[in-house]
Design a protein that fits this description.
Helix content: over 70%
Distance between the termini: 63 Å
Number of domains: 1
Number of strands: 0
Shape: elongated
Structural class: mainly alpha
Radius of gyration: 32 Å
């Protein structure tokens, strides 16, 4: 069981320890001759900003894709409800069965078209996000190549 009287923690000693030691110096970046740490840090900030932009582009694309999926679902549901409401089993004959077959085929074709549009939307969102990240990676590689040249001199 925990006994606060025997616990060796001393708040005053800990406070004094942090007051007398300058931890900012301990965590300061070491300087290497010929390396511009600020430029590397700026490049990494740019890379992070690019990743954020890519994620925003992807999120916007997926949000649009989700809205289209909801729209397709609602339209399909409304059509199904209409078909159920209009269906009268006492009036089924060869002609109405053929008409129902045509309606079902048209519904299938429409659903297939909607799925194609959704797939194209997902592909577009992924392509846009990839383009943003790809451009930044190319820039980063070029920057790293420039930095590495300073080490070979």
């Amino acid at each position: 069981m925990f006994d606060p009287k025997s616990f060796p923690f001393d708040l005053e000693k800990m406070t004094e320890f942090f007051k007398t030691n300058d931890f900012a110096k301990a965590f300061a970046a070491p300087t290497v001759p010929g390396v511009d740490a600020d430029a590397i840090l700026a490049a990494q900030k740019k890379n992070m900003a690019t990743l954020v932009a890519a994620n925003k582009a992807a999120a916007a694309g997926y949000q649009d894709l989700f809205a289209k999926q909801v729209e397709v679902f609602e339209a399909t549901l409304a059509e199904a409800q209409k078909q159920i409401t209009d269906f009268d089993p006492s009036k089924v004959d060869a002609e109405s069965a053929a008409a129902q077959g045509e309606v079902a085929k048209a519904a299938f074709d429409k659903a297939l078209g909607n799925m194609t549009a959704l797939a194209e939307g997902a592909q577009k969102a992924n392509a846009e996000a990839f383009e943003v990240v790809s451009a930044t990676i190319k820039d980063s590689v070029a920057e790293l190549q420039e930095v590495s040249k300073t080490f070979t001199k």
